[in-house]
C-alpha cells in the first residue's frame, strides 16, 4: 500500500512538471471559441479596407458616418437644418433656442461652459481664459469676448451654428456636446450677457458721428 502511494505521488509530480513547462503553446480546449478566437478589426480602419475583408462582408460598419438627416437615440427630434457654409451661417440667425434659463439646469449649463468654453473665453466670458491670459498664455490669438456688444447681438441660432461646425480659430464642439447641451451652454451665455444692445442704437450712434465730421 505504501509502495502504491509513493508511485502515485511520483506520477502526479512528473505530470505537474511536464504540464508546467514554459514552451507549451497549446492553450487546450476553448470553452467559448468565439471569444477566444475573435475576428477583431482595427478601430479606425478605412471602410474600403473593411469591405475588402472577407470576414467583414454583410456586417454593419460602425465606424461609418450616420445617414444624413438622422440623429442618435436620445437626441432632440428637431434636426438642425442648415449646412456648414456661408449661406447656412446667415440662415442660422432665424433659429430660436428651445431652452431658456427657466427650463434648464443652470448649474449643469455653467459646468459645461467652464469645461468646454472657459479655457478660452474665460469664466467671466470676457475672452481672457487660461489659454490667453492677457496675451501671456500659450494661445496666440485672442478669443472672442462674449460680453462685447457684437456677441451680445449675435443670435442664438448663429451661436449654435458656430458651436456645431466651428468658426474661425474655434473648432466644432458637436462631438463634445450633444444638441441639448449646446443649447444649454448658449442659454447660460445669454443669461450672463444680459440685455443685448439694440442694432438701431448702434446705427444711430454711427450716423450721428458721421454727421459731426466736417
**Strand-and-helix sequence, N→C?**
HHHHHHHHHH
- What would you call the shape? elongated
Helix content: 40-55%
Number of helices: 10
**Overall average pLDDT:** 79
Radius of gyration: 31 Å
Beta-strand content bin: under 5%
* Strand elements, count: 0
Sheet with the most strands, sense and barrel status? none
Compute the separation of the termini in Å: 126 Å
Sequence stretches where pLDDT stays below 50 over 5 or more residues: 198-214
Strand-pairing-aware structural class:
mainly alpha
Describe the secondary-structure layout.
Blueprint: H1 2-19, H2 33-36, H3 47-51, H4 86-91, H5 106-116, H6 118-121, H7 149-153, H8 156-165, H9 179-193, H10 199-212
Polypeptide structure, described:
With 214 residues, the protein is mainly α. It has ten helices and no strands. Mean pLDDT is 79; it is low at 198-214. The longest helix is centred in the N-terminal third of the chain and has 18 residues, at 2-19. The protein starts with a helix and ends with a helix.
Provide a concise account of the structure shown.
This protein has 214 residues and is mainly α.
Defining key terms:
214 residues; mainly alpha; 10 helices; 43% helix
Amino acid at each position: 500500500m505504501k509502495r502504491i502511494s509513493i508511485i502515485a505521488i511520483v506520477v502526479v509530480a512528473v505530470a505537474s512538471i511536464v504540464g508546467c513547462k514554459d514552451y507549451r503553446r497549446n492553450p487546450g480546449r476553448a470553452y467559448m471559441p468565439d471569444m477566444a478566437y475573435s475576428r477583431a478589426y482595427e478601430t479606425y480602419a478605412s471602410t474600403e479596407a473593411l469591405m475588402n475583408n472577407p470576414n467583414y462582408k454583410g456586417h454593419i460598419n460602425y465606424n461609418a458616418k450616420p445617414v444624413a438627416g438622422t440623429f442618435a437615440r436620445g437626441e432632440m427630434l428637431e434636426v438642425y437644418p442648415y449646412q456648414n457654409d456661408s449661406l447656412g451661417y446667415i440662415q442660422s440667425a432665424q433659429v430660436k433656442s428651445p431652452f431658456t434659463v427657466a427650463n434648464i439646469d443652470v448649474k449643469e449649463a455653467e459646468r459645461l461652459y467652464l469645461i468646454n468654453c472657459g479655457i478660452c473665453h474665460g469664466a467671466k466670458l470676457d475672452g481672457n481664459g487660461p489659454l490667453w491670459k492677457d496675451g501671456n498664455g500659450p494661445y496666440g490669438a485672442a478669443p472672442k469676448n462674449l460680453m462685447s456688444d457684437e456677441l451680445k447681438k449675435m443670435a442664438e441660432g448663429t451661436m449654435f451654428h458656430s458651436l456645431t461646425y466651428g468658426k474661425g480659430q474655434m473648432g466644432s464642439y458637436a462631438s463634445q456636446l450633444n444638441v441639448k447641451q449646446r443649447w444649454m451652454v448658449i442659454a447660460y451665455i445669454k443669461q450672463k450677457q444680459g440685455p443685448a444692445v439694440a442694432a438701431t442704437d448702434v446705427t444711430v450712434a454711427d450716423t450721428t458721428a458721421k454727421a459731426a465730421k466736417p
